[in-house]
Design a protein that fits this description.
The protein has 335 residues and is of the alpha/beta class. It is built from 13 helices and twelve strands. It comes from viral metagenome.
């Protein structure tokens, strides 16, 4: 009997009514198994777990790994670990000590992990991967990277950092801590002052953040869609557009500018090919493209904004794709 473990416990992005009805039998079974009280608790990670379970042949057992409620021995007993609930969620639920425990177990388990520990570490450090891609001539946004421990040890560092920001960027800035998923800890400063900045840095220390990314605030980032592209086993699957701070629904692939999407698929394949030379490419990866680079080009240039190796995503069933069913069929082939 082969065993696949799926890390779950994100508690975000609940299931749609339509998707629940489509796979009601397996979702009801999983609700009973995990003792979920309502369909709102069938979040995107639980949905993936359920569809993997549904697609698994009789000789493959699919096991839920809830939050950090497992041991290294539990992991070693598995043939494959598919990671959805990862370090950003661990930090939210268990703090920095929980993150250390999680990383140690994932690094030292005898089982195959996707994404593996090396790639998870790479993606967790935006400074690392943005520097990496810049050297590979992939367009990225100009960014200041700052270790918050410097300020923690010496509060006068805030003034030095503020001067550095004001010398490098004109106008509003956008700050985001590493390990700050779902915009948690992020803040936009229209008119930054030393007092407001120190208050912000103090709040980041309180929540255990250690590194901060500071970028110029690009108003066009709100005007144009951020294009999120999903890839499985190195192959393009689908895309959708989101707008930061917008209350509108995500734009489906068919509603996006098709010429732009074609260009981003080519750029995305370039990113995939670059990564494949240095890493074991993860089963799933999301590549996000933002608009726009601050240059004088008439045609606005999208830049690589983020990559995620255990991304928050949907089944994308509105157009009949049912991506989680496709995902389930593919991952059970890996054991």
């Amino acid at each position: 009997m082969k065993k696949i473990g799926v890390t779950v416990g994100t508690e975000i992005e609940p299931i749609s009514k339509g998707y629940y009805k489509k796979h009601k039998k397996i979702f009801d079974e999983v609700m009973e198994e995990l003792e979920l009280e309502s369909t709102d608790e069938i979040t995107y990670d639980i949905q993936q777990y359920a569809l993997i379970k549904k697609c698994a042949p009789k000789n493959v057992e699919v096991i839920p790994l809830w939050k950090l409620e497992y041991t290294k021995k539990d992991l070693d007993d598995l043939d494959l670990i598919y990671v959805i609930y990862e370090s950003t969620f661990v930090l939210r639920d268990y703090g920095i000590e929980g993150v250390k425990k999680y990383k140690t177990m994932m690094k030292n388990t005898k089982s195959i992990v996707t994404p593996d520990s090396k790639f998870q570490e790479f993606v967790l450090s935006k400074k690392t991967y943005m520097t990496y891609f810049k050297k590979k001539n992939i367009p990225i946004m100009d960014t200041i990277f700052y270790n918050i421990n410097k300020y923690k040890k010496n509060k006068s560092e805030a003034n030095k950092l503020l001067n550095r920001i004001q010398n490098k960027f004109e106008g509003p800035i956008y700050c985001k801590p590493e390990l700050g998923a779902f915009a948690q800890g992020s803040k936009m400063f229209k008119n930054i002052t030393l007092t407001s900045f120190k208050k912000y840095l103090d709040s980041l220390i309180k929540y255990g953040y250690q590194d901060l990314l500071i970028q110029p605030y690009v108003s066009e980032f709100l005007k144009f869609y951020e294009i999120k592209t999903i890839w499985m086993d190195g192959k393009y699957q689908y895309a959708y557009g989101t707008k930061v701070l917008a209350n509108s629904e995500d734009a489906q692939e068919k509603d996006l500018d098709q010429k732009l999407l074609k260009d981003l698929k080519i750029k995305g394949k370039e990113v995939i090919d670059i990564l494949s030379k240095d890493f074991n490419l993860p089963f799933i990866i999301r590549i996000d493209w933002g608009c726009c680079l601050m240059n004088d080009n008439v045609c606005r240039d999208y830049f690589l904004n983020e990559i995620e190796c255990a991304p928050t995503m949907g089944a994308n069933d509105k157009l009949g794709l049912d991506f989680f069913a496709r995902l389930g069929k593919e991952i059970v082939k890996k054991v």
